[in-house]
Specification:
The protein has one domain (about 1-15, about 70-200). Helices cover about 5% and strands about 25% of the residues. The chain contains one helix and 14 strands, in the order H-E-E-E-E-E-E-E-E-E-E-E-E-E-E.
């Protein structure tokens, strides 16, 4: 589970580096300096003197090579996953993931996502309650794999509902987190959280 959580953190960090124009800068070193698109490698464009990677999907943009990114998402990864980053008061009290696609919700500012998270319709879900007092309300998972990290203090107060998920991992690492024990698949409880380490607790196709 630790490896999976680290992988999700890496994806979330990469998503956070997306710039407002829908591109990401790999590094501000001389090798990425440019005067025009001809100076950049395939898949990059010259923007303000730097070769940047062009994103295929951005919020509300249907002109890219991929499917339009749903409005509920801050951004979408190359694999089509919805990323919802809650970093200020514009974040909904209870973020709702779009149906039928992977969803990653990052609650990184104190008290945001106070109403919990609804990813009951997502094909898979990762929720990072990183800041203190985030995810106070219930986190609702769907039938797909679900990972919830209650890392901040007093997070996941009302519990995580993932009894019907094909696998569920809930890590109650923050002080006084998971005041209400998670509802896990049968036999997959681990303290106040859940673990999919046992083969019977990981039945995803």
């Amino acid at each position: 589970m630790v490896t999976l959580l680290r992988g999700y953190r890496a994806v979330a960090l990469a998503a956070g580096l997306l710039c407002a124009t829908g591109c990401s800068v790999d590094a501000r070193s001389p090798q990425f300096a440019c005067e025009g698109n001809a100076d950049c490698a395939d898949g990059r464009a010259c923007v303000e003197g730097w070769c940047v990677v062009e994103a295929t999907t951005t919020q509300g943009d249907g002109d890219g090579d991929g499917e339009p990114c749903p409005d509920a998402c801050t951004s979408c990864d190359d694999d089509g996953a919805c990323v919802i980053e809650c970093v200020d008061e514009t974040c909904p009290e209870r973020p709702v993931c779009p149906p039928g696609i992977p969803c990653r919700v990052i609650c990184s500012v104190r008290t945001l996502c106070s109403g919990g998270v609804d990813c009951s319709q997502a094909s898979s879900c990762f929720v990072d309650c990183a800041a203190n007092r985030t995810c106070f309300g219930t986190v609702d998972c769907g039938p797909g794999p679900c990972v919830v990290e209650c890392a901040g203090n007093r997070t996941c107060r009302d519990g995580v509902l993932c009894a019907d998920s094909c696998s569920c991992d809930v890590a109650c690492d923050g002080n006084n987190s998971c005041a209400t024990a998670a509802s896990c698949p049968v036999g997959c409880d681990q303290g106040q959280g859940c673990s999919s380490d046992d083969a019977s607790c990981s039945t995803c196709p």
